[in-house]
Amino acid sequence: MHTDRKTLKPLKIGELTVEKPIIQGGMGVGVSRSNLAGAVAAEGGIGIISTAQIGYDEEGFEKDQAGCNRIAIRKHIHRAKEIAEGKGLVGVNIMVALKHYKEHVQEAVRAGADVIISGAGLPMDLPKLVGNNKTKIAPIVSSRRATQLILKMWAHRYNRTADFIVIEGPKAGGHLGFSREILDHMEQLDYAEEIRKIIACKQKFEEKYETQIPVFVAGGIFTAEDSRHVLELGADGIQAASRFVATEECDACDAYKQAYINAKEEDIVIINSPVGMPGRAVKNAFVTSVSEGEEKITHCFNCLKACNPSTAPYCITQALINAVKGDLDHGLIFCGSRTGEIHTITTVAEVMRELTV
Q: At what angle do helices 101-110 and 65-84 cross, to 10 degrees?
């Protein structure tokens, strides 16, 4: 019997239309800024700028991180929209764990971000910070429980719901919403079932607010076949991040992109963030040094709320800045679980084509 294959189709997020429901995931520090996000939007997708220490190369950053980050948020949103030339959507990824989370959200709204995606914590106050503006908001969730908590709280406190949801699975890169134990035994986890539960959970809020809440699935999305798989589970779109690093348009330096190309499957490891969250990264000299307790913090960049420089194993801001600038031996290179499958520099247009069913 013939059955129609699921395909990525244009969809609505509120009054906004997305031609290609592909989100390019936010990657900080400095990996996804205006160049990459603008290029993805120009192809009809959703280009995402990471606000994590986005102003690292602004003059005066060493002394005033908060001010430089606000300047850079505004600058990169405007620049990405210029590159997009009215196509697609341009948004930001803002981590709840940031010390200046509120200011980043408010600056992004003022700058005209189409969407704000927020994870690395539960974005309970995001509706209040955005207010009655046109910017659409989405939580990043990894479980049905987290989804229920956020949507229930938003309904109770603010009488509104999410404009869309990003489900981030255990194969994603960077900070992860899973325990170390789960990540070490991923093959035993039926995450497809969790995706179905999250989708079922959001349906009652769709009914309550008489709206559609599109779901995008992230984590290990590399091919059109992967896209098809999550669409068959009930998703409306996908989010991919690592796939976009080894592109001509990515904001990272060439050495950073080459690290992705050179990485083999056995080079991808789970590390501990200074705030206790597990993260996925490329094993290099820096990761080895951290595991041996040799990294010392000499300067605080005021990035994460929960970080205590006197006890943290290393400075994540300095490590990420070093990496994006090309000092890989002293840098942290976050990546997804399937980075070992990346073998060449390509273009955003080609990645979008390969992800499209």
A: 30
